[in-house]
Amino acid sequence: MTSENPFAKFREECETALAYALKTTFPEVEADTLSLSKPPNVDFGQLASSLCFELAKKLKQKPIPLAERLVSAMPKSGFSLVSKVVAAGAGYVNFYADFPKFSDLALSSVRQLNFEYGFVKTGDPVKVIVEHTSVNPLHPIHIGQARNPMLGDALARILEYRGHAVSRHYYIDDVGRQSSVVAYGYLKLGKPKPDEKADRFVGEIYTVTCCLVELNRLKRELELAKTASLSEEVPKINKELAEWTSIAAELEEKFPTLFAKLLTKIGEDENPEEEINRLNRAYEDGEPEAKSLIREVSELCIQGFRETQQRVEVRYDSWDWESDFVWSDQVSKVLQKLKTSPFVYTEGGVLEFDAEKVVCDLDLKGKLGLRENYEVPPLTLVRADGTTLYTTRDVAYTLWKFDRADRVVNVIGMEQSLAQLQLKIALYALGNSDYADNFFHFAYNLITLPGYKMSSRRGRYITFDEVLDEAVERAFEEVSKRSPQLSQEEKREIANFVGIGAVRYALVDVDPSKPVIFTWDRVLDFETNSAPYVQYTHARACSILRKADRKPENADFGLLKEKLERELVLAVASFPDTFIEATEYLKPNLIADFANALADRFNTFYNALPVIKAESQELSDARLALTDAVRIVIHNALNLIGVVAPEKM
RNA sequence: GGGCGGGUAGCUCAGCACGGAUAGAGCAUCACCCUCCUAAGGUGGGGGUCGUGGGUUCGAAUCCCACCCCGCCCGCCA
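Predict the joint structure of the above. Result:
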């Protein structure tokens, strides 16, 4: 007998029995919930109900006698997984699993379903677009942004395993002034070929160009302020100038040739800022020269992104260019439609979207979880010069997504919560409330550095690549120390999946809403509650199975009587529940926590009880089956968060 | 000023959606465990006003209200 969700089967039996007992004992009572939950301790059984505490209130009696009456009214037959039901504590009803049968069910199920075990399919499969990463093509992905692809990829994986048709999208934000800045610098340099990783190369051009353009602008502003007798502005400008001058000194030291070249070339232009603005307008207008230039730099940078993503095994199904939405009529169509709604007005030459009016007219405050007295700020849709803004374009992009999917999940930092809310409200305003209801902003908090704020404009960041390099290097030292007998090649391979796994795990493990202060120690952890710990546990299980070198054909699961063994069976049997919860509530961190907890239990078991050298062949086989199940479940859990489950390390 | 998120052991975090039995891990620290299946491991000790104050409840880290601290947002930036 097998089950795709062994623990749920046990729970169903408990529910049926409890509901029956309740109905026969207290037919007059209406209970909306049976209040079943996992007790804190195996001594209290595998499931417990606190129903009697609520009954006590309704019936004005003490809980424990009620619990006893329920227990005596339990059906005497029909159980296959429940061994006994007991009234305990102040009034709990505790259900105990019949472990010989339950272990058999759980371990056989894992064995049979193998690498599909745990991935219970949804009854309502839909098409989902997960947009994640979407780092601007201006510089390498830095560690502050790396949380995004790690979470986004894990989300895409769990939704896919849940049975949804998932498409992973990268939104390339190439429209906007910054893209013109980097393209301008690139052009001034004579469109050079990169002599290093392409995104790094582009990032250097971006930072130095930014700095030089900023200095130029500030100097002109200073002159203007002096002559126009705006003397109160002078100290403020001087302060900014001093800051950028020191950044310039930093950059000149780091990239002397690049800096000198750009300094000369940009110096040739009277007003670089104006050149950049012109390029920006030309790009939005779709002029061929601007198009080819900006696309060329962007592509270059994206080439670097692809290399990084390959390293961490993150892939995308679609790369969507923001500029495509501007050049086609999709943005203007959205604007046309919004203009005919009563939610748009013009003020000072700009087009504004009255999100508050939408929320009031359509009575959305409760639905959106907003306070009654909170006013949603308006959103500017179109600038005075007729160009559109980021969120406006994002509305067109979102409609495009809903042409291709039933549900949209945007993995975007929480600093964009308001913009994402306004976007959602715009969908309601356009009459697409079904879209709006299926539009989810998966928000996560920032990763910061302890000393200073990361700033790509100032060239102050630690790149994701650097973190990965360091992780792999430290893992290599670790492998060399622990397994000196391995060949260089083996060590390198292990160091790679250990280092990268450690980073992936560390970025997925913490609750996304928590802010993270980046430290090397935090990400490059090789001890308990890290990917290497879980990986090691997996390798350890593999090693036992390898050494045993036989199929556990004579297993007697009734012999698994130790508390440690039963806890392991329970954990393995509960994986489908954890998977479903992680998927339905979009909580990939639950998977990491589960994997770690399972590894913990297995290591305790490993240290306490012999598997191969157990007292009898039947017990040994039962423990081997248990070890095999743990191996499979750890493999499946790690797979969901994109971490390699190695057979050796 | 308004909104959102966070505040749990010296440090990093879990638990909070759905209130239940002694609030859990890891790091650090102290003491142990490799003639034994991988010690990236295990065992044990010490360490807590769950930000503060009220409230609801038989029962609150969890729900409600007020306040405090930290971060982010409130742009014709993205």
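Chain A has a mean pLDDT of 94.
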